[in-house]
Amino acid sequence: MAYGAGVDVGSTQTKAVLIDESERIVGRALTDTGANVIAAAQQAFATALADAGVREEEVEYVIGTGYGRYKVTFGNTQVTEISCHGRGAVHMFPGTRTVLDMGGQDTKAIRVGPHGEIGDFSMNDKCAAGTGRFLGAASTALEIPLAELGPTALRAERAVKISTTCTVFAESEILSWLGKGRKVEDILLGVHQSIASRSIGLLRRVGIEPEVTFTGGVAKNAGMIQTLEAGLGVPLNVSPDAHYMGALGAALFALDQIRASRAPARVGAAS
Asked: Is pLDDT of 271 > 90?
């Protein structure tokens, strides 16, 4: 049995996935990226190996992806996160034709074909207002753990309108609403709606075709899922492994390389 691996080095967290020859996930790992990107990639890979109970020499091919993909120094090659998220999403949900990947620093809308091939994509600009970082600003301002933001927002009765388009000023606007006596739940729903609105704008640029699959760390936020579904008017595919989708796609590309290396050489016609 041979294994392929994908290591997705994101701005906030680094993910690693190992798959076997039947394309089944056998090991996964998640760690904070931190300042030492090379060490984060190595740690994630080692943890995924331990999770799978697999020796490093059994992994025939490793692909790095994400913003720090060139820091996966033990990898064989690199593939962009756009391609990896598209491939991973279609693997998990074969009907996927549109992917929304929301990470810590950027959000990507991707249109894909039946095999995960990329038709078009769009990313947010330099501002992080439509990303997980905006949620991080709300978490800090309201002193609420990130994991509790979504459930709290779902208890809202009337969302406030978040007008800022800059994460830097998000905390001050949130605190201003608190000072006006607005409920925390209503403020948080406003934050979720602001992020959802920007994300839907990106999706419209590439064309929204069902099925829509939501990937990235923010896909763990139930409030964001519900807010996006309300804005889009369609249900979202969300896998328990949404956070690992880029690493999964990279591992699938690694398996492609393993299979190609085993293909018999084509013999020319006899003269």
From this structure: no
Q: DSSP letter string over 178-241?
A: HHTT--HHHHHHHHHHHHHHHHHHHHHHH---SSEEEESGGGG-HHHHHHHHHHHSS-EE--TT
Task: Say whether pLDDT at 269 is over 50.
Answer: no
Give me the pLDDT at residue 137, please: 85
Q: What's the pTM value of the predicted model, to 2 decimals?
A: 0.91
- String of DSSP letters for 57-82: GGEEEEEEESTTGGG-TT-SEE--HH
Contact 7, 56 (CB under 8 A): no
Answer whether the bond into residue 173 is a cis peptide, omega within 30°.
no
Alpha-carbon distance 52 to 29, whole Å? 10
Alpha carbon separation from 103 to 206, 210, 233, 242, 271 (Å, rounded): 18, 21, 22, 11, 57
With tokens 């709606």, the residue in question is 193
What are the residues whose beta carbons fall under 8 Å from the beta carbon of 89, sequence distance 6 or more? 96, 99, 110, 112, 116, 213, 215, 237, 245, 249
**Which residues make beta-bridge pairs with 236?**
212
Q: Is 270 helix (H, G, I), strand (E, B) or coil?
A: coil
What's the 3-state SS for 224-237?
A: HHHHHHHHHCCCEE
Can you tell me the distance from the alpha carbon of 200 to that of 179, in angstroms, rounded to the nearest whole number?
30
Q: Which residue reads 């753990």 in tokens?
A: 145
**Token digits of residue 247:** 């690493």
